[in-house]
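Hey, I'm writing a tutorial for new members on how sequence and structure tokens pair up, and I'd like a real worked example in the thread rather than a made-up one. If someone can provide the structure for the chain below, I'll link this post from the tutorial.
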Amino acid sequence: MLKKIEQLLEKKPELSEKIILENEFEIDFLTFNNRPFLGATSIITQGIRKLSNCDKDIIFIYSTFSESVNFELISLIATYLDLHYFKQDYHIDFGDILYINNFKLIAGTDFEGFYTLHPSYYEGILENDKYIWLLPIFKSEFDYIKKYGSDAFQEIIEMKDPDLSDLKRFSII
């Protein structure tokens, strides 16, 4: 699998970190700088598909602003996986939302939840059915998705075309 990702992204990862969840599931976190575009970094999981209720790996894309963020984000993604798979025990899919009340996901931001969508920055490179993009969202975006659904939120994303890799972005709602 790693060789395939390296071929698709045309480079080797700058960082590879293994995290063990629930004392039995090993998940590799691969960090690729300047992918999918110059100035962006992608963290791609490898090994989530070993879980019985998941058939997708996760991509987290952000504009580069500091190397120290990598560890925090990898821990954040691992926490998300732990909450999603082991605490709630249901299948992850496109359009899912997870809200953590009154908790700032990333220091210095107002993100309080996650939304999953197709990895549009990688369209045509990675197989959409095997990868899911984990997007930090604001409370207002979470509320909108709960009220109107993920299709309506996706339409707003397509209409406004915000830079979703910008962790300093404003809410699109």
